[in-house]
């Protein structure tokens, strides 16, 4: 049975007469261990962020279901939460759930718009997009995203579509910040190579020279 967003909210609590303000997510989640209605505040604070992120990755058809399931999973695991801000935690749960929908996500990339291309954070693009046909660039980017290792793609899209910084991505994926940095850099290089192979080769050669010139740590 599919759950709509309203259904998941009502399953968490059937009544809430006061709004919780000036209280961290962590405090609300702790309160929800004995008062389940309190968790609705977490839903109200973060539902739109989770929905937008899932919709960008899977399309609106799947976004409702993934968003609803994200909050149901979060509610069932709320005793494991540590911290003050639940956003990264919730986006991490959504990311895990979306891994079951690889085919649907690949279809979403095929329908990617030029506006989506502009939001992919690839610092090394420079003037690549202006030298390429926009439709061709979008198509190449969609294929390149689909070919990225799932961990690299998740890191890139949490940064791009959910606006998480390195620390937020680290918390969402439960990986060190150094690993986040490596995944983002690798993903950007792969996308650059797909969009503009000539420029991509130049970047790889430049990177190789820098590595060769770096002092040994032995």
Task: Provide structural commentary.
The chain has 218 residues and is mainly alpha-helical. The chain has 2 domains: 1-102, Rna Polymerase Sigma Factor, Chain: A (Orthogonal Bundle), CATH 1.10.1740; 111-213, Orthogonal Bundle (Arc Repressor Mutant, subunit A). The protein contains 13 helices and no strands. It has helices at 5-12, 25-32, 39-58, 60-76, 87-98, 102-110, 114-119, 128-131, 134-147, 150-161, 166-173, 177-195, 197-213. Helix 3 packs antiparallel against helix 4 (60-76) and helix 4 packs across helix 5. The longest helix has 20 residues, at 39-58. The radius of gyration is 20 Å and the shape is globular. The N and C termini lie far apart (58 Å). Keywords: DNA-directed RNA polymerase, Sigma factor, Transcription, Transcription regulation. One of its GO terms (cellular component) is DNA-directed RNA polymerase complex. It comes from Microbacterium testaceum (Aureobacterium testaceum).
What gross morphology would you assign? globular
Show unreliable segments. Answer: 123-132
Instruction: Please state the average pLDDT score.
Output: 79
Percentage of residues in DSSP E strands = under 5%
CATH homologous superfamily designation of the largest domain: Winged helix-like DNA-binding domain superfamily/Winged helix DNA-binding domain
N-to-C series of helices and strands: HHHHHHHHHHHHH
